[in-house]
Amino acid sequence: MNYRHHFHAGNFADVMKHVLLLELLELLGQKDKPYRYIDTHAGAGIYDLALAPAQKSGEYLDGIHRLSQLEASVTRLAPPMIQRYLELVEKLRSEKSRGWYPGSPWLALQQMRDIDTGTAFEMHPDVYDQLRHYVYDRRLGVHERDAYEGLLAVIPPKEKRGLVMIDPPYEVERKDFPQLVELLAAAHQKWPTGVFAVWYPIKDRPMIERFEKKMMKTGIRRQLICELCVWPDDTPVGLNGCGLLVINPPYQFADRADALLQWLFPQLKMSENGGHAAVRWLVGE
């Protein structure tokens, strides 16, 4: 996978990640107290799908483009957060042009309240410059910094409540993602009440099973797995599906996430047979 997110912007995995991100922030915002949103690999913030990177991969055609082509009678029956997500995509496109797609920092800011704050890390200088240009907001602090070092330096935040979204490029996070396991264990130790959401690709099921076993061995409680696999596990394509591991999910998130993924799966699946959408506890209370 090319680490530049522009190549993958708007694909089925982005749709899944962004819908679940919005749901997590919605639930965090139900309490009166402020929260902190931390994006460890923020990217450029928004993306022009008409430019070469997105056009070269064409991945958005099987993601946001599919949803955008659905009849209004179909989307009206979608769960509320699907509708909210599609409304936000349209909001960005009305401000820019039809070819644009939002990244997680932009979407998070739409969901955050005035009392909430955010921290975004991006270590690639040119992408960092784009992020500062495209996503300027007084609530969001943007840092040109390596997330593996930066995250541990900013938690726990003064708000004491919040969400960390971790979506690395998976260049160094090979095999069963040992770097991620180490980071999550250290971060959870510093901020045991924080909500941590980790997006990861699913290409090789045995590798994912090893990752899950490593996470179970950390001793961290309340680990929820959300999966959307648009191809059967044994299909030899670049990306069969994706997962979101959520530590300390808010109350009701598991049920809401399942409803969201069950609606998305038939809209985004690439094969008549196989594939799945599922939400399950890896580790309970």
UniProtKB/TrEMBL annotation:
Gene Ontology molecular function, alphabetical: 23S rRNA (adenine(2030)-N(6))-methyltransferase activity; RNA binding
Keywords of the record: Methyltransferase, RNA-binding, rRNA processing, S-adenosyl-L-methionine, Transferase
Binding sites annotated in the UniProt record for S-adenosyl-L-methionine: H18, H41, S104, E122, D146, A147, D167
Top-rank taxon: Bacteria
Active-site residues per Swiss-Prot or TrEMBL entry: D167 (proton acceptor)
Reactions mediated catalytically: adenosine(2030) in 23S rRNA + S-adenosyl-L-methionine = N(6)-methyladenosine(2030) in 23S rRNA + S-adenosyl-L-homocysteine + H(+)
GO CC term (a single one): cytosol
InterPro entries assigned to the protein according to its UniProt record, in alphabetical order: RlmJ, SAM-dependent_MTases_sf
Site (Interaction with substrate rRNA): residue numbering on this chain: Y3
GO biological process, one term: rRNA base methylation
Record has Iron as a keyword: no
EC number: 2.1.1.266
Free-text function comment from the UniProt entry: Specifically methylates the adenine in position 2030 of 23S rRNA.
Entry similarity comment: Belongs to the RlmJ family.
Subunit-structure text: Monomer.
Protein name per its UniProtKB record: Ribosomal RNA large subunit methyltransferase J
Gene name tied to this protein: rlmJ
